[in-house]
Amino acid sequence: MAKNWKHDRAADHIEKKIKDVETVTIVDYVRDMSLENIPANKAFRVDGVHLYADILNLTDMLNVTADEGVTCHRRTLRFLNLHYRAVHRILARCDARRVDFHNQRLHALIAKPYNAENDAEAKRVRRAVAIAQLIIDVLHETGDDDEHIPDADVRVGIDTGEALAVNNGRRGGREPLFLGEPANHAAKMSGGGSNPGIYLTNNARLAIGLAEAARPANTPLTTAEIASCQDAADLGVSKETIMAEWREDLRKNPIGSFEFSRHTPPLRTLDMTTLTPANTKRQESASVYADIDGFTAYVARHIEETPEDVVRVFHVIRAELDRVFTCDFDGRRIRFIGDCLHGLLCDGTVHTTDDKETVSTATLCAGALRSSFELALEKLGDEGIDTDSLGLAIGFEFGPMTITRLGMQGDRVRCSVSRGVLTSEAEQTRCSGDETAIGPLAHDAGTKAVRDLFGSGRKVKSLDYNEAVEVLAEKGDDTALAAKRAAFSTPAIAAASERIIRPYSERK
Amino acid sequence: MSPSDDLDIIASCAAEFGAVEIARTRLELKVQLPVPLADGRSHSYRLVIAIFRGVATAQEEKPHLLPEFCPARHINRDGSFCLFWRAVDDIVIDNVSAARMWWETLIRFLQQQVRAARLRHWPDAKGRAHGEKAAIHQLRAERAAGRLGAPFPEDLADGRLIVEVSNSSGHGPAVRLLHNGRRLYSVWRRDRRVVNQRQPCLCPKGAQRRPIVLKSCGDHGGAAADLALELQSMAEEERRFWNDFESTQCCGTMDGCPLAKRESSVRAERVG
């Protein structure tokens, strides 16, 4: 049956989700509160330091071979796995909270010492800097020459301030997700350049008595500044200790070799909890990123006066995007990265992916995500909730994708990494809130209808589901034609919707 | 047949398309017509359908979901929908099959209106040119493109071909045909012939290892000249068409509408 989007189905779900958050509670996060299993209608206001650490040479790993074959993927996953395990140890020993690993990017929160203590913010920032340096030092030694795994080059971004901790929506809702400027700005610092080092926002710089920088993303902390933070933070754990523990752990629990197999489409039926290095999925698929544009500014506008609306908007939009991706289009959501959804789609058989159908489905899905997003804004607006200046930026790419879980046994993290995943994210970042972009490989793999739709710039404005179906079906795209035929149950209307008309204009 | 008989034929198929009859006079039929979309939405239009000598027209009873007037959305000054060009695509309502075709055209027209409102331009390039004279030139250009063969008909339909006039020379002005902004060839306007007739033909024979030149490739030299010149004439006639609406207010729903441009220049003059 053709995958499709229906207005009424989306409307019903959105209304249910709005009901879930009719009453929202915002609680200031203080000592000994648990951030696990936060209910959908609750959020914690957390004053803390956000640390993002980006491994800069992941792309080099993915491009180690000309073709994106199993060797390249095997080495990349092993590279990440070794480093995830090392970082896991550091965070555990330094009482920092891992929020997420998203491929090459680690997000951690340093919430201690709490504000009850004097000069707490400065202490947290200094602690974050010390942890960052420890991560850099350790990952500089966690390569594996035997397996052609290089050491990691790391760039860290740090910001401090208030963010809202909400349920991250994963199964069991175990871990929180943070919304707001400090998380976003820290990510921008780590992702804002190609030079390693530790980069603080001006907020964070001021908190530890450093002068504001004209261009903070180009102003790494000096060795002396880092040393001063290390002395003040006194983490109580050294690089040597972490390395010794990491080696002992590897000896006791060696990383199994990565074995690849395909999952019979659709990817929706893939149970991610069964994935391990030895049971890693790898197949040609479409990677989709859908990011709520303007949401960080929205949180900043509302965090003081109406944080409840932030929770409502976030909960409703995210749940609906997830439903569309998973239920309407049989996709596999990999994770939410803040206000961004990342997932994979695949059409075909256990043996082969139907490239053209997969790209057409991804195009329709992108349209459906926008339709649902706009409908959610409309319904939230009907409830008197401000949704001004929010948009949805969507990017997707096609190619061989991996899906697995990495890290420590019992605490594995979902991971889907490939050139296509990185490209789809890059495609999304070149979009404004009403645009959808397609990667070069998806563009080439798609039908002529898809190529014509996106044009040579590989980007299109205002593409909702109705438009995606219509414009692809007009050019003979089989997937869109099937979706369009399924949409009209009345034969007369179906015939009308396929009629080619040539309207005219008269002078009268 | 009397108008009333023709209306009966139209009305007899209304239910198949989900239309509900609200009222009827000898010359007019009022219906409520839900128009379903591919995404499951349905917009309901209250329409007045009139018929005269077998020609049916439709318009909103009151402008509610559509603009009162918008040539870019094929809505005439009297509010009627310009569903087709009668000279070529006429549907004479003299039997049930013709009535069905008319209903299908009406529903598709209204589905395309929803897309036009969102995109702020007509959703496909299949619309006829504005005004009869321009439409005639467009038709001739389409025939010329057909004579040249693929990909010219599709490129023309998708709006990838445009023309521009270059400076005069001993042969008078030339018209350049551009494909996605890149010049394909130029045509002497006065002589109605391609400037460089020794260039490889535009069809696959011109891409062979030993290409056939335009002049020697059957009718293709003439077809290429006709295509460029008819497109140029179409553009000129469309400009005249829009000039006829000088004092008319723009509905503001379409980007690049000549009426909007004219309005803003008038406003600028007033401010100045």
TrEMBL record, chain A:
Residues 49-190, 286-341 form the Guanylate cyclase domain. SUPFAM superfamilies: Nucleotide cyclase. PROSITE patterns: GUANYLATE_CYCLASE_2. InterPro entries: A/G_cyclase, Nucleotide_cyclase. This is Transcriptional regulator. It comes from the Bacteria. The lineage of its organism: Bacteria, Pseudomonadati, Pseudomonadota, Alphaproteobacteria, Sphingomonadales. One of its GO terms (biological process) is cyclic nucleotide biosynthetic process. GO terms for molecular function: adenylate cyclase activity.
Automatic annotation (TrEMBL), chain B:
This is Uncharacterized protein. It comes from the Bacteria. Pfam families: E2-Crich (PF20272), E2-ntca (PF20298). Residues 129-259 form the Cysteine-rich domain. InterPro entries: E2-Crich, E2-ntca. Residues 24-123 form the Prokaryotic E2 domain.
